[in-house]
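step: validate -> pass
step: tokenize input -> pass
step: predict -> running
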Amino acid sequence: LEHLRQIRNGGVTLALHASAAETIRRSAAVVQAAAAGDAPVYGVNTGFGKLASTRISKEELATLQRNLIRSHCVGVGEPLAPSVVRLMLATKAASLARGFSGVREAVVQALLDAFNAGLVPYVPAQGSVGAAGDLAPLSHMTLALMGEGEMLVDGKRLPAAAELAKAGLKPLELQAKEGLALINGTQTSTALALEGLIRFEQVYASAIVSGALSL
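step: predict -> pass
step: emit ->
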């Protein structure tokens, strides 16, 4: 929890542990082999949900992932607090770094680079799609990393591409299954739960002091 508190507050640098790299590469190689093959593999060369039986050509696999992100950016309302978005970036990177999602190292590194540069993707606080995870908020986060969404800078929504360029970062180019891996997860729910816990700890400490002073 102490590490998560530091991540929430920013000002720390995150890096991928060397031991994770090989596992990530092996997992990515499995997906890349599936993408190059002819057998149907859900989310790699097929559509999603009710379109699972629809085959996608090899030439359109990257487009499928980009469109998945774009189509799920349906959030509304005020943006999530920067502290919550920082936790989203970090916990998503930690999840993918376990090497079970088939993404390349570059995807995990893009999350870490954005965090380390102090970038905060614009993520609306309300709305999601389906029950497979925090699809809408994670899509907004990913869209910003792709350079198509927006970043939150001093409370203002600014084009993500320009903010990435200022930080010396290139937009993330998704490959087979990577869009699906980025939005299938509960990192927004987890980040909100952590934010609530950390805020409550402060209230609890204040209550202890107030009680002591009263006595």
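step: describe -> The chain is about 55% helix and 5% strand.
step: cleanup -> pass
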